[in-house]
Amino acid sequence: MEIEEKVLGRLLPWWARHGGLAQFHRPTGAAGHLAGWIMGHRESNLARNRWAVELLDVQPADRVLELGCGPGVAVAALAARATRGSVVGVDHSPVVLRQARRRNRAAVRAGRVRLVCSPVEGLALDEEAFDAALAVNTVGMWPEPAARLRELGRLLRPGGRIALVSQPRMPGVTAVAAADELTGLLTEAGFGDFRAETLDLDPPVVCVLAKLGS
Ligand SMILES: C[S@@+](CC[C@H](N)C(=O)[O-])C[C@H]1O[C@@H](n2cnc3c(N)ncnc32)[C@H](O)[C@@H]1O
Question: Domain tally for the chain?
Answer without folding.
Answer: 1
